[in-house]
Write a structure and sequence with these properties.
Length: 193
């Protein structure tokens, strides 16, 4: 396959990923979000944060790899803003479920979904810190010896990819909950995720 054909195929795959992520995120929000219901903020924020925005952030990261100089810096900044918005939604979603459990006097971290969710959210925070650290324009990476820079950046990429994969596992586990397992959409979501 030619380089041009490979690029075209990659662009098509990224488009499919974006469409699927948008479909699943929007349908999650449509199915679950009721502004006056505290619990509903959890799936709405998490689906939008992980599926829509984090997917977009990962795709943007893959797209800026071949860029150099100022276009690369701008692309990394856009990646950071998208991931920052995702992180804000993840924190809101986690706060919603935590506060809802407190309000109902229910125990925390009793399911695989909740345990994976906590681990995934903590990993997302760590990955974001790694992103801030490794973005040369911020200057934080200069506090580390030069021979560590490549390892720091590789760790950020690996943590970001692992966070995204764990988010999919966590979402699948959440779809086993009786609230999410009703109707025609859950099987479609499970196949899409």
């Amino acid at each position: 396959m030619s380089i041009r054909g490979s690029r075209a195929r990659d662009e098509q795959l990224r488009l499919v990923a974006r469409v699927v992520a948008a479909f699943v995120s929007i349908s999650f929000v449509a199915a679950f979000f009721r502004p006056s219901v505290l619990f509903s903020w959890h799936p709405a924020c998490m689906a939008t944060g992980y599926l829509l925005l984090m997917t977009e952030g990962l795709l943007r990261a893959a797209e800026f790899r071949p860029l150099e100089k100022l276009p690369r810096v701008h692309a990394i900044q856009r990646h950071g803003w998208v991931q920052g918005a995702a992180l804000l939604l993840l924190i809101m979603g986690y706060a919603a479920i935590y506060l809802n459990k407190e309000r109902l006097d229910k125990p925390h971290l009793t399911s695989y979904h909740s345990k994976f969710g906590l681990a995934t959210t903590l990993l997302a925070l760590g990955s974001a810190m790694g992103g801030l650290l490794s973005f040369r324009k911020l200057g934080l990476i200069s506090f580390f010896p030069d021979h560590m820079h490549a390892s720091i950046k590789a760790a950020h990429r690996a943590a970001g990819a692992l966070t995204w994969v764990l988010s999919l596992v966590t979402i699948e586990l959440g779809m086993l909950h009786p609230v999410a397992a009703k109707g025609v959409m859950p099987p479609i979501w499970q196949l899409s995720v």
